[in-house]
Amino acid sequence: MKAILVGFMGSGKTTVGNLLAQRLGMPYHDLDDIIIQRAGKSIQQIFDDNGEAAFRQLEHEALVDSMADNGILGTGGGTPIQLTNFEILRQSQIPVVLLDVLPQTIMDRLKDDTQRPLARELGLTGLVDLKGQRDDKYEAVSDFRIATDRLTPLEVVDEITKKT
Ligand code: S3P
């Protein structure tokens, strides 16, 4: 991979990742999409049928299998939190970019979301708590952080290309 994007749900990883990949003329890989393809069902359905632990196992396998591919990788919001993934990301030679957002921005972006099991379970204040618990790990695996709240996705892409 040329770069790996990490950050909480709603931070723009997929949107920015696609644009960045286009800009660099390389493919975009999204861990959530790889998992959906492999499992043949949605993430919500995997959580409902098999539970979160099964989802995390699929996510870990997808990360391991993707690291050597060419392109940009968008991770899921929980990917760096699993210890094995944390070590893979922290030790990788590939630039890891943290896309960060303010709690209010997350709330605005996820308020009508039906496809994110954790957003549905936790509600908005629960999501903000979860982000607070995860922030140290996001910081620890990443090489630099971009606050995306006031930037358009293309401006975020500009920032990333300047720094990588
Ligand atoms: C999750 C984030 C989601 C997805 C799953 C769990 C999390 O990815 O992997 O719903 O634990 O934060 P996005 O960050 O792409 O929404």
UniProtKB/TrEMBL annotation:
<feature type="binding site">
    <location>
        <position position="56"/>
    </location>
    <ligand>
        <name>substrate</name>
    </ligand>
</feature>
<dbReference type="GO" id="GO:0016301">
    <property type="term" value="F:kinase activity"/>
</dbReference>
<comment type="pathway">
    <text>Metabolic intermediate biosynthesis; chorismate biosynthesis; chorismate from D-erythrose 4-phosphate and phosphoenolpyruvate: step 5/7.</text>
</comment>
<keyword id="KW-0028">Amino-acid biosynthesis</keyword>
<keyword id="KW-0808">Transferase</keyword>
<protein>
    <recommendedName>
        <fullName>Shikimate kinase</fullName>
        <ecNumber>2.7.1.71</ecNumber>
    </recommendedName>
</protein>
<feature type="binding site">
    <location>
        <position position="32"/>
    </location>
    <ligand>
        <name>substrate</name>
    </ligand>
</feature>
<feature type="binding site">
    <location>
        <position position="116"/>
    </location>
    <ligand>
        <name>ATP</name>
    </ligand>
</feature>
<keyword id="KW-0057">Aromatic amino acid biosynthesis</keyword>
<keyword id="KW-0963">Cytoplasm</keyword>
<keyword id="KW-0547">Nucleotide-binding</keyword>
<keyword id="KW-0067">ATP-binding</keyword>
<dbReference type="InterPro" id="IPR027417">
    <property type="entry name" value="P-loop_NTPase"/>
</dbReference>
<comment type="similarity">
    <text>Belongs to the shikimate kinase family.</text>
</comment>
<feature type="binding site">
    <location>
        <position position="77"/>
    </location>
    <ligand>
        <name>substrate</name>
    </ligand>
</feature>
<keyword id="KW-0460">Magnesium</keyword>
<keyword id="KW-0479">Metal-binding</keyword>
<keyword id="KW-0418">Kinase</keyword>
<feature type="binding site">
    <location>
        <position position="134"/>
    </location>
    <ligand>
        <name>substrate</name>
    </ligand>
</feature>
<feature type="binding site">
    <location>
        <position position="14"/>
    </location>
    <ligand>
        <name>Mg(2+)</name>
    </ligand>
</feature>
<dbReference type="InterPro" id="IPR031322">
    <property type="entry name" value="Shikimate/glucono_kinase"/>
</dbReference>
<comment type="subunit">
    <text>Monomer.</text>
</comment>
<feature type="binding site">
    <location>
        <begin position="10"/>
        <end position="15"/>
    </location>
    <ligand>
        <name>ATP</name>
    </ligand>
</feature>
<comment type="function">
    <text>Catalyzes the specific phosphorylation of the 3-hydroxyl group of shikimic acid using ATP as a cosubstrate.</text>
</comment>
<dbReference type="Pfam" id="PF01202">
    <property type="entry name" value="SKI"/>
</dbReference>
<dbReference type="InterPro" id="IPR000623">
    <property type="entry name" value="Shikimate_kinase/TSH1"/>
</dbReference>
